[in-house]
Amino acid sequence: MNSQIFQIATILLQFWTQASLSDPNIIKILGQNGSWWAEEGTEYDISNCNSSLTHTRDGNITKLTMNGKCANFYAAENCSGWFIRLVTNQLGGLIFKPETFRWPGGEISKSQMQAASVGPCFDKCDARNWLGDKKGLVKVTLYEGTRHQGTNTTIIIDGDGCFLIPRELVGFESIKISGDENCCIELHSSANCGTDSTQFRPGYPELSHLWVWGLGGERTFASSAKAISRCGVYCNKSVSDVNRIGEYGFLGDNIITVYDQPGYYGHVTYLNLSSGCVTLNATDEHYSIQTYGKCVVLYEEPNCTERKGSYTLQTSGQGEEYYIEKLLTGTAPLVLKSVKLCDQNLQAIKKGEHVGETVKDSSSSIPTWGIILFCVSLFINFIGGVSYGVKWYKTNKRSGDDIQVLYKSGS
Q1: CA 174, CA 165: separation in Å to the nearest integer?
Q2: C-alpha pair distances (Å), 10 with each of 91, 145, 150
Q3: Which of 4, 261, 279, 392 could cross-link 338 (Cys pair, CB 3.0–4.6 Å)?
Q4: Residues 176-218: pLDDT tens digits?
Q5: CB 2 within 8 A of CB 10
Q6: What is the CATH code for 2-230?
Q7: CATH second-level architecture of 245-408?
Q8: Would you say the C-alpha torsion 214, 218, 224, 228 has a positive or negative sign?
Q9: Which residues, in sequence order, are CB contacts of 371 under 8 Å at separation 6+?
Q10: Phi, psi (5° rounding) for residue 401?
C-alpha cells in the first residue's frame, strides 16, 4: 500500500514536471549538495553535448528531471566513454536519488547515479549503444513488485531470438540483469520485437522502479513490455523479417494455432478440434489464426452457439459473395470465443478421412488458406480470390471502424 501511494504521488509530480519542462531537450540535474525537496537543479540542453556538469563536484545526482527525451549520461567528461542511455516515459521523469544496479557474481550492488557529462542519445540502432557486449548468455529476471520483490520469472537470452514475456508478468515493476558486465538487452512494446524499445545494461538506474522508464514511443512504459531481445538484433527490420513464418511440421490432424498478437506473433495456443467445438480462454486475447488447410467456423459466443446480434465466420468453402457481404455488412466476429471444424470436416473425421493439409512453406504473409487478423486498412483484392481483413477487439462495441479481417479465399 505504501508503495502504491508513493507511485501515485510521484506520478502527480511527473505531471507537474511535464508542465514545467516545455522543451523536451531541457533536463534538470541537482547534485549531491542540493536539497531535493527545495531546489530544481541546473538546466542542461541535451540536443548538444554538455562537456562538463557544474551541478556538483563529485558527479553524484540527487534529483533528475526529464521530459521523455532520451539522453546519454557519461561517466567521463566531453561525452566520451561508457554511458547510461536513459529514456523516461512520456509523462516526464522526476527521479529522486537515482540508484544504479549491478549484479557481480549474482549479488546485488547499488550505488548513487553519477555523471560527468550529458548529451543526446545515439540512434537506437547505433552499435555504440552496446559497445563491449560479448553477446553471451544473459539471465533477465522480472519481478511483479518494485525493489526486486514478489513473483518473478527468469528468461534466458541465449541467442538472437525474440523472447516473450509471460502473460502473467506483463506489468512487472523491476528487473535484474545477470550476465557479462557489458551485456545489453532491449525491452520491446510488442511481441514481435519490431516496434518501440529501450535498451538496458547492468549499471543503469531505476531498475527497481521500471515505471519511470519509457520505451521510446508516445505513452509507452517499460513495465508493459511484451518481449526481450539482445540489443540491436531487430534494428531496421520489417515485421516480416522479425518473425518470419518458416516451415511447419505436422502438428496432427484437426489442430489449429491461435496467437494472442496480430500477424502470427505472441503466445501460442494449439486447439485440437477433433472432438467438436472448443471454447477459448476468456481472459486471453486472440488476434491471429492458422488453420493449415482446414475449414473452421469462428464464433463470437462460447460453446459455438449462435444468437441474435452475434456473428460467425467460415474460413473457407464459401464464394466471394459471402466474404464481401461479411465485410460490407459488418457481420464478422469481433471477439473470438469459440471455434469448430466445418460440418463437412466433422463428417470426414467420423468416416476416418484426413482433413486439411500440412503447410510446408508459409513464408508468405498470407497463406492460401486460413485467416490472419491484424490491423490493416480495409481493402478488396480480386486477384486469386478475395482478400479483406478484420481486427478483433475485446469489446462489445460494433462499428465499421472496428472491423478489419485479412482472409484469402480458395476460389
Answers
A1: 13
A2: 11, 16, 21
A3: 279
A4: 999 888 999 999 998 888 888 999 999 999 999 998 999 987 7
A5: no
A6: 2.60.20.10
A7: Sandwich (2.60)
A8: negative
A9: 288, 289, 291, 298, 313, 315, 405, 406, 407
A10: -70, -25
368 burial via Cβ count (<10 Å: 0-12, 13-18, 19+): middle
Do the domains at 2-230 and 245-408 have one common CATH topology? yes
Q: Cite the beta strand spans of 135-196 per DSSP E.
A: 138-143, 152-157, 163-164, 174-178, 185-188
Return the C-alpha cell found at 69: 527525451
- Residue 372 is placed in which grid cell? 490472419
Return phi, psi of residue 149, to 5°.
-125, 160
Q: In the chain, where are the structural domains located?
A: 2-230, 245-408
Q: 145 and 2 in contact (C-beta within 8 Å)?
A: no
Length of the chain: 411
Residue ranges in the chain whose pLDDT is less than 70: 1-21, 33-38, 55-57, 92, 238-250, 345-411
Q: Give the span between the Cα atoms of 266 and 284, in whole angstroms.
A: 11
DSSP state of 147: G
Would you say 320 and 262 are in contact if contact means Cβ atoms under 8 Å apart? no
Q: Are 261 and 372 in contact, with CB atoms under 8 Å apart? A: no
Q: Establish how many alpha carbons lie within 13 A of residue 258's alpha carbon, considering only the half-sphere containing its beta carbon.
A: 23
Residue pair 315/407 in contact (Cβ under 8 Å)? The answer is yes
Q: Which residues pair with 95 in a beta bridge?
A: 64
User: Would you say 363 and 298 are in contact if contact means Cβ atoms under 8 Å apart?
Assistant: no
* 85-118 pLDDT tens trace: 999 987 757 898 899 999 998 889 999 999 999 9
Q: Tell me which DSSP letter residue 163 carries.
A: E
Residue with cell string 558486465: 181
Q: How far apart are CA 245 and CA 304, in angstroms?
A: 29
Q: Which of 358, 361, 376 is nearest to 263 (CA)?
A: 376
